Prior knowledge:
Organism: Pediococcus ethanolidurans
Number of domains: 1
Strand content: 15-25%
Number of strands: 12
CATH topology: Rossmann fold
CATH superfamily: Alpha/Beta hydrolase fold, catalytic domain
Shape: globular
Low-confidence stretches: none
Helix content: 25-40%
InterPro entries: AB_hydrolase_1, AB_hydrolase_fold, Hydrolase_4
Structural class: alpha/beta
Pfam families: Hydrolase_4
Strand order of the largest sheet: 1-2-4-3-5-6-11-12
CATH class: Alpha Beta
Number of helices: 8
Amino acid sequence: MNVEIKRDGLILRGLLEAPRTNEYDIAILMHGFTGDLGYKKTDLLAQVAQRLHEYGIATIRFDFNGHGKSDGRFQDMTVSNEVADGNAILTYTRKLPHVRKIYLIGHSQGGVVASMLAGYYPEYISKLVLLAPAATLKEDAQNGELQGTTYRPHHIPDALPTKKHLIVGGFYLRTAQMLPIYEVAQQYTGPVCLIHGDADTVVNKKASERYHDVYQNSELHIVSGGSHQFKGAARSQALQVVTIFLEGFE
């Protein structure tokens, strides 16, 4: 079912898929920088959702502002307003009539958003899954680097063209330098599953290792040969870890 949620004058567009049962658990899926909710069957979040559906877990996944089919300009997107997007989606999900437990699953920058949202709303999140969470974005911003594009970190431009032919707003870079990522994330003390590929060239696995250090109740899985998108055999392994964690660890 297509869903539309308003947040500060913007419409966020997403997809809610739920079993026809009286009650169910639901996972909120959050995509990464420049990504979308997973419109192709081969997309990571699409396959995560499909796997969860096989086990009776509902999913809601959506495009962040400035991405996919949601309103807004990509240039105006920041991690902070993606957290605001996530807050709107969580509020919507909490009001659904048949929901028991709510899980958060975030990939890359969506993992950062999910970790912070769980820190802000720990009592509502039963479990948290972070797939290659891009917490290194703060360090990158402080060093003046964005996925291969460099800039002067103390003289940030209002707009930064990237190698992907997208324009990142200067406010994204300025706020990224000061994000309290781990400070907020560690307020969540529930079960956390961290999954990271050791061949990830976009986000170093040290990000997940640091999350593992600050969380009180986490498990860390380093996937051999896993890329940032967990392609090939690494995808199957990552999906299996997610399934086992949500189905078998209370």
